Amino acid sequence: MDIFNRSITTLNINSDIKAKLLKLSICNINDLKYFTPTKLAEEINIPVILAESIFEQINYDNIKPISGLELYTNELKKINSIQTFCKALDNMLEGVTVNGIPLGKITEFCGPPGIGKTQLGIQLSVNVQIPKMCKGIEGKAIFIDTEGSFMIERVIQIANSTVDYIKENYPNYKNDSFNLNSILSNIQYFRVHDFQEQIALINILENYIISDSMIKVIVIDSIAFHFRQTFSSMSLRTQILNNIAQILMKIADKYNIAIVIMNQMTMKFQRMKEDPANKEESLLVPALGESWGHASTNRFILSTTDDQMIRKIFLQKSPNNKQGIAYYQITNDGVRDV
Amino acid sequence: MKFIYLDNLPINNKILLILKNAQYETCTDILLDSENKIKAKTKLETEDIQSLLVLISKTIYTENPKSALEIRNENQIEKLSLGDKILNKVLGGGLPTKSGIIEIVGESAVGKSQLALQLCLMVQLPKHLGGLKGDALYLTTETFYSNRLETLKYYFMLKYGKYFEYDPCQHIFVETLIDLEMQQHYLYYYLPNILEKLPNIRLIIIDSIAFNFRGENNILSFQERAKILTEIAVRLKEISDKKNLIVICINQVSDYINDNNNKLSNEKVPTLGLTWSNCINMRIELSRNSINYTDNDEFVHKTQPEIERILKVIHSSYMPYSKCKFIIRDDGIKGII
């Protein structure tokens, strides 16, 4: 198809201007060829800058695709992930520059209560601060707590163990700046009491990120709690959640931030087709429904095993890794390999 | 939850009129719609809508973020001792304030109410003895065991009498929630008022959260029940956080029916299902051991064999899975090794 046949209604301009253009019987881009920005501005009585922006949009000479090689070398330049201290988990998300929770993406962890979602969140807000010399990214964290499970006592415990871990594994790292106080001061904590506050906070989250460019991870624990049953209409809920997802995706991509979302599990009743008695079976599925499932780039499902201490993590969705299972445990020190 | 009318905000009169014509009255109305939807309804410029959204969001979310360091230095979280060293150790020093909803779950007659009553007394102790120097509010749906409280108080006063100029039972406020409607009404509307009037309350106990949901006149569908439960949970958590107090919900257990062979297994599960489990922040499970406890403590007069019981911290965001054994005596709950 000839690009010059593109209708002007598809351009990103105000509908008033579109109407004016159509009045002049300018229907597609081809018709604009006979105008200069100044002439057009005069003709339909708009500021010249606006007219210029219209022409910028249709200037196809400017568009140059990046080659795959270029993209790859750009990727290689930066460390793009946060390690979790559970190597089995990190390895599931292995990529060229990624070995852990990726920056610039949304990663979702779904699990029943008591499985370690909050622990994982705290561990990541600490691990994001690991110095660059020790394969970290030296960032800061935002922790959004909707359930009230963020216990400072536990954060101190995990932070202390992480400092010890770095000392043990990187004896060459002699800098004192990675210590308990610095770790605690680099975690910004937001408490959310109801769904209204949650929407409001997500709306203004970008302001906080602009004011501190070091923020590299945002943990939301949990996205689901206030959206579980408060809504009478499911379509309203879906719409709000889609909105939240869009804002988060934008933030993740624009500022190269890892967004980590904790989600609850819910029961879903399903009729078994093969069963002649048409019995209903109950399944444990992530909360918030099907359409929310598209929000995250990577989705993990956490579950228990027969052993009280060992937990299973299942990579359900990932664009560049295959599905897989790993095991982890929550120790006094935090999240660790089995 | 806040309800703020748009009239009370510094919004340009022209824009305010447009918003009202598009049926927007409160901040909530705006927040529930997406930017594009607002644009479609009001035909306002994108910049205007964006600044409106920021203004409204800042009005609704007024709290300033805190760094974890500030939270540690403020040191607001206090811990309520259970009155026993072994039990305190299992719970990491006691039950923390500001910790959302703590659930105590177990079969009947395992000691749930006993533990709750003991906490009502402990909370009145001065801080250096593990108390919070506060009052207790006991919301009951069954019967309030005032005679058991009297017995407990007798032994409590023997030990701590010198710290009290008043009868500690005067500072345990009791309310009976006779049905679900009252339970809902009380928790939504009365409770915030009562906490204003009696600001010294540091411990709220609901015994039990499940009873009114389980009655015969229970005609609620699963969805309705889940909705009420989450709403109650949201309010209780907010109170716990803002008033810096402890909220304990006592829950019952029901038999777990195994799907595969429709047989009753020995397993007991907490009632109210996954919805409620998703709402709570910490679960403490009490259960009975089948053996009787024997020791050579001759000073305690035993009328009947003592039953060994187990306390487990099932899930909590600050404690690992841990458990200990305990027994119940006239003077309260005692941990044993």
TrEMBL record, chain A:
GO molecular function terms attached to this record: ATP binding; ATP-dependent DNA damage sensor activity; crossover junction DNA endonuclease activity; four-way junction DNA binding
GO BP, sorted A to Z: meiotic DNA recombinase assembly; reciprocal meiotic recombination
Annotated GO CC locations: Rad51B-Rad51C-Rad51D-XRCC2 complex; Rad51C-XRCC3 complex; replication fork
Cellular compartments annotated: Nucleus
Domain RecA family profile: 78-265
PROSITE patterns per UniProt: RECA_2
Keyword flag DNA damage: yes
Signal peptide: none
Keyword list, A-Z: ATP-binding, DNA damage, DNA repair, Hydrolase, Nucleotide-binding, Nucleus
SUPFAM superfamilies for this protein: P-loop containing nucleoside triphosphate hydrolases
Domain of life: Eukaryota
PANTHER family: DNA REPAIR PROTEIN RAD51 HOMOLOG 3 (PTHR46239:SF1), DNA REPAIR PROTEIN RAD51 HOMOLOG 3 RAD51C (PTHR46239)
Protein name listed in UniProt: DNA repair protein RAD51 homolog 3
UniProtKB/TrEMBL annotation, chain B:
A cellular-component GO term for this protein: Rad51C-XRCC3 complex
Keyword vocabulary terms for this entry: ATP-binding, DNA damage, DNA repair, Hydrolase, Nucleotide-binding, Nucleus
InterPro entries according to UniProt: DNA_recomb/repair_RecA-like (IPR016467), P-loop_NTPase (IPR027417), Rad51_C (IPR013632), RecA_ATP-bd (IPR020588), XRCC3-like_C (IPR047348)
Molecular functions (GO terms): ATP binding; ATP-dependent DNA damage sensor activity; four-way junction DNA binding; hydrolase activity
PROSITE patterns in the cross-refs: RECA_2 (PS50162)
Keyword DNA-binding attributed: no
One Pfam short name: Rad51
Domain RecA family profile as annotated: residue spans: 76-253
Localisation per UniProt entry: Nucleus
CDD domains: XRCC3 (cd19491)
Example GO BP: t-circle formation
Descriptive protein name: p-loop containing nucleoside triphosphate hydrolase protein
